[in-house]
Amino acid sequence: MQIILFGPPGVGKGTQAKLISKNFKIKHISTGDILREEIVQGSEMGLKAKAVMDGGSLVSDEIMIGIIKKVIQSDRCKNGFILDGFPRTVVQAEALTKLFAELNTKLSAVIYMDVGDKEIIQRLGSRYSCSKCGKIFSRRDKIDGDDNCTECGEKLIQRDDDKPETVLKRLRVYKESTAPVKTYYEKLGKLYLIDGSKNIKEVNKNILAFLKE
Ligand code: AMP
Hints:
Elements: E1 2-6, H1 13-24, E2 27-30, H2 31-41, H3 44-54, H4 61-72, E3 81-84, H5 90-102, E4 109-114, H6 117-125, E5 127-130, E6 136-138, E7 156-157, H7 164-187, E8 191-195, H8 200-212
Parallel strand pairs: 1-3, 1-4, 2-3, 4-8
Antiparallel strand pairs: 5-6, 5-7
The protein binds adenosine monophosphate (AMP).
């Protein structure tokens, strides 16, 4: 099973990708997580990516395609994978199509999750994650003022690129550079639409029903 989970920032791709990855025992590939890991390790790529990410822009196609080529061909992806955050441009989508052809493999489906701009701004503005295990929380649910993770007790932090000014920039970048990817997969007849405004459980139920079909 080779799946792409696609949609605007804050639609819940990361949360759903983790659930699908667990359900089908396939590798979850989050390009955002890979870049954040490079930043933590202080690599040259991480240092370059941080400035771009903090500004709400996209890391270059060349770097991203290089990362994906390496990961997809690794042993961890043998049983399949779910891509979360890639492709984000038509150039990346075309490179992925080429890579699939070279590897003699096929894309199973592209799941497009959508939600309105107002909801995205609210969700990203209230998104916090655990500094240790990465579990994601919404301030809208955690109104008790507890700043620690319910799983491991570590402190919750807000991503630099979830700050209000950067969220608006990310939405603009999404519309200009990433939204055309939807048309690309629509033309290939691979796109399946999911309403991302529903709660986590319901969205997951809809995705699983489609994938099990
Ligand atoms: P995410 O965690 O998916 O929201 O990604 C966080 C940030 O990482 C994005 O806003 C981009 O700056 C960068 N990024 C992640 N994936 C890609 C990609 N496929 N192409 C370009 N930039 C990316």
